Amino acid sequence: MGIDKNKGLLNTIAKPRPTGQHRLSAQSVFSPPLTKEAMLRLVQQLEIHQIELESQNEELRRAREALEVSRNSYAELYDFAPAGYFTFDINGVIRQVNLTGANLLGVERHLLVDTPFARYIADAQGRELFPRHLANVAQNSSLQQCEIRLKGKGDSIVYTQFRSVRVDDSSSSHIRIFCSVVDGTIARRLKEDLQKSHDNLESTVSERTGKLARANQMLAREVEERKKTEESLQDACSEIKRLKDRLQAENIYLQQEVARQYNSCEIIGQSEALSQVMARIEQVAPMDATVLLQGETGTGKGMAARAIHRSSARRERPMITVNCTTLPATLVESELFGREKGAFTGAFARQIGRFELADGGTIFLDEIGDLPLELQSKLLRVIQDGEFERLGANHTIKTDVRIIAATNRNLEQEIRTGRFREDLYYRLNVFPISMPPLRQRSEDIPLLVEFFLAKFNKKIGREITTVPSETMRALQKYHWPGNVRELESVIERAVITSQGSTLQVLDQFNNFRMKEDAANNTGPAANEEREEGEGIKTLVDLERDYILGVLLKTGWRIEGASGAAGILGLNASTLRARMRKFGIIRK
């Protein structure tokens, strides 16, 4: 309201009022006149109060509209639910029912409210069961169930299942029982029809048995056919045995994977290099991104892969590990993607591949750099499309796996030499993680020594508790070409040979610094090594040249008594792995 209007109101309030029969003093009847400033303040307060009241009224209106919408939505969900919902009191009187429940009984909803439910029960057994069911629900807070036959439309019988729970009414001391009623008439009829079919089947079987008894005389003329059948059964039994052995092998493999997954130790260390690795693992683990682990042998790439899997959303499914180096070259494809019976000579049974075993989980491709070039395209297809075919099969299999790959090779160098596909590298290198060698985190060696010492004390039955400081310094100065794996072997060997409670490392560490200087190409040892090494091939080059010379001598024949593998004293699959490692390809 305006200021002039408020002034008139205030003047009206300030005027003297009639006092009745008794005359009062002027001081008790008349209020003191308000000043102009007081009147303005009072007007402003009234205007503010009016604005606040209008705002509150608007908020109440919006809340009332939202409540109305929510109530209508709830009413629709309640009325058109697929099950009938009844609310009873402790005496079985219907207090509330939805439209589905009313339609189930064939009665209008307003006629059901405040009526005893027992009048709609079809038989005396149900009328005795219903009050006991209500009493059980009232005494127990858990869900209670029972089956009761009800009267439906046109005096039909409805077989229903009750699921009831007690609801305490906070507004009163009364107990309400909320019950969902599901029509099971169709299921009951199907069960009865199934029983009739079963009885008919029994009768048919009985008749057939009689016919077979009369036909026993004809079996004598079918002895030859039975012999053939027995031979077929023997072949089938042999195939079943092979399948059983295969399943047992897969079961053992999965058990080993589970044991390694849940019994492996955590990554140990507090160095800055390892902390960076753990931070990257925490970043990528919840995602489904492909991870490429790079690092030297023994740096813990497999342990990092298991840490990623354990922290991912796929941790409830297995992580299948595939070592691409140890698998024979002729069996790599069937091991990865599986095979059908008869896919090649010797394939007597169907085999499930590692990608099928890992469906829904994680597959860890260790030493991915050793994967044959002809299989890299198939692996690329699995990564891109999530599908593959078994060997000898003409149908496509879909799979949902997360791929973690690891290698100790320089894949970029392998791409330049033509031994690794560039497009596969970019697919695998979505999230690269480099595992630091042990020599770059020497501050973690005391923690690792403590862990391995406790591990082998328990395994061997020793109680070695002390590590001399000079031994620890020697261990920290060593460059550890075998990384953590080499350190573990050194500690295990020392626990075996130590006497008493002090760790005694018998390995020679006095020339470790000389070896490290030579490895780093520094110091007098490196100079001496360079002088002596001029014109001398490395052991790797000598091995490669020797293998190549034997292959040329045998005409590139690998297997057989006169093959290159026999001459070299190697298994044929091992020789093929060495050839892939050194890049030896027949031109």
Please outline what is shown here.
Helix content is 52%, strand content 11%.
Topology (SSEs and partners):
Layout: H1 3-14, H2 26-29, H3 36-79, E1 84-88, E2 94-97, H4 99-105, H5 109-112, H6 124-139, E3 144-151, E4 157-168, E5 175-183, H7 185-214, H8 223-263, H9 272-284, E6 291-294, H10 301-310, E7 319-323, H11 332-337, H12 354-357, E8 362-366, H13 373-385, E9 387-388, E10 397-398, E11 402-407, H14 411-416, H15 422-428, E12 431-434, H16 445-460, H17 469-477, H18 483-497, H19 512-519, H20 523-533, H21 539-553, H22 564-568, H23 572-582
Parallel strand pairs: 6-11, 6-12, 7-8, 8-11
Antiparallel strand pairs: 1-2, 1-5, 3-4, 4-5, 9-10
Helix pairs in contact: 16-18, 19-20
- Helical content class: 40-55%
Average the pLDDT over all residues and give the rounded result.
Answer: 80
Poorly predicted runs of 5 or more residues: 1-29, 259-265, 510-519, 522-535
The first-to-last residue Cα distance is 102 Å
